[in-house]
Amino acid sequence: MRDDDGTDRVTGRIGTGFLLLVGFTPTDTPREVDWMAEKVLGLRLFADAEGKMNLDLGAVGGALLVVSQFTLYGDAAKGRRPSFIDASRPEHAVPLYERFIGLLVASGLPVATGEFGASMAVELVNDGPVTLWLERSAASVS
User: Fold this and answer.
1) Is the pLDDT of residue 138 over 90?
2) Is 71 a catalytic residue?
3) Which is the catalytic residue, given 16, 27, 29, 71?
4) How many CB atoms lie within 10 A of CB 11?
5) Active site residue: 69, 100, 113, 131, which one?
6) Domain boundaries, the chain
7) pLDDT reported for residue 9
8) 17-133 — its CATH code?
């Protein structure tokens, strides 16, 4: 991230782990956030001794880098400029983002974050690669 004086500032850095680009919709609630944290912490995406994706973050000493990303809900179906109407406003999203981070921190795993709403340069070394989209609507949470 670049400060006002033009100097670069690192707000979060991890080694092995997950880079989580996190966005919220206006209908998201703490219930979806709780589900998402539990899902992320339980994902078995790392290779075991046989090379199968069978190990979770805790098993490999992994960490999490959480970056807010409202543009995940950009809709470019019409025209040439995406609409972000499906992205939650900051007054709704910030508490959900903070809750999500708090749940991840409570797991005991190392958690680093970006800065909500800031323009950030994110670097990724994708070992795999494995990229997933995780979403659960309020109607499907049970």
Assistant:
1) no
2) yes
3) 71
4) 13
5) 69
6) 17-133
7) 72
8) 3.50.80.10
Question: Torsion angle of alpha carbons 23, 83, 132, 101, nearest 10°?
Answer: -10
Tokens 């400029």 — which residue? 81
Q: What is the pTM of this model?
A: 0.85
- Write out the DSSP string of the chain: -B-TTS-B------SSEEEEEE---TT--HHHHHHHHHHHHH---EE-TTS-EEE-TGGGT-EEEEEE-GGGG-B-SSSSS-B-TTSPPHHHHHHHHHHHHHHHHHTTS-EEE--TT---------SS---------GGG--
CA dist., res. 86 & res. 38, Å (int): 24
Interstrand relation of 53-55 and 46-47 (parallel, antiparallel or unpaired) = antiparallel
Taking the C-alpha atoms of residue 70 and residue 23, their distance in angstroms, rounded to an integer, is 5
Q: Select which of 46, 70, 100, 113 is catalytic.
A: 70
Mean pLDDT value across residues 50-70: 94
